[in-house]
Amino acid sequence: MPTLGFGTFMLKGEKLKEVLDYALFLGYRHIDTAASYENEEEIGQVLSDRVNAGRLNRKDIFITTKVPCTHLKKADVIESAQSSLAKLKTSYVDMLLVHHPWGFIIKENNEMQFEHVDLLETWQGFSTLFKSQKAHSIGVSNFTLGQIDSILKSSDVPPANVQLECHAYFLQNKLKAFCDEHHIAVSAYAPLGAPNRPAPHVQNNENLLEDPLIKEIAKNYKKTPAQVLLNFLLCRGFVVLPKSANKDRIKENLDVLNWTMTTKDYDKIASLDKGIRFFRFLFMRGHPDFFEEEDF
């Protein structure tokens, strides 16, 4: 799995096609999407166009997509994955993740109704896709340590990847140590603090990119705050998934792989941990599988 990915959350349509094509031109080779982002068709079109033009080989691209909360039953998992493959115009994805462990149903009036689905049943569907090579690797996102451990203890196919929110204000030390112990790769979404996150997730005004320490360190290295934050997570052994629709920032985000900060500066950034989660999913309160007080 390439350690730097191109996040596509909230990107759609012609704008997504434009910036994704530019990212691939620059050298990005890891694309992170999800069925619920409703942009797999655009991604599939860009990739197909490049492959057909001889400018890209499918084997050189790492595609991650995710099965939504509405498809956690085994049969629904397989249906969702097959739909994603068709939209992405590929016979397999490199990584397939359970997007969230909180099942729900969308009723006719568009209201959301919580639904408990045994996550071991969900994982059976994922294991089937893995064994049939429709997904070359499988994993989870937004799962607690206990939920991950339950899968490890019950299945002969362990998760290869855990994707979770992680940044300098929310270090996820406990989950990272657990995943390292079990040889599970960890991907960080919102590595820059998600300054443009959707309104339902805005519960505070903290702006990680404006943190005085981050700006000071960035100035010393002649880098941007975003580059410093990404480099910090890479030093911690994370895969990072920044998202941007700005071509200058897309290019800047790629320039994080060929330099490292000093141990002193690394420790300064590590001291910023405030336990601040920007994506709190408060609308899931009351769900039997939502554990707000646990890291996920």
TrEMBL record:
Record protein name field: Alcohol dehydrogenase [NADP(+)]
Positions bearing the site annotation: Lowers pKa of active site Tyr: 66
GO MF annotations, alphabetized: oxidoreductase activity
Domain NADP-dependent oxidoreductase: 4-273
InterPro entries in the record: AKR, Aldo/ket_reductase_CS, NAD(P)_OxRdtase_dom_sf, NADP_OxRdtase_dom
Binding residues for substrate: 99
PANTHER family: ALDO/KETO REDUCTASE
Pfam families, sorted: Aldo_ket_red
Active site location: 37 (proton donor)
Organism in which the protein naturally occurs: Biomphalaria pfeifferi (Bloodfluke planorb)
Phylogenetic placement of the source organism: Eukaryota, Metazoa, Spiralia, Lophotrochozoa, Mollusca
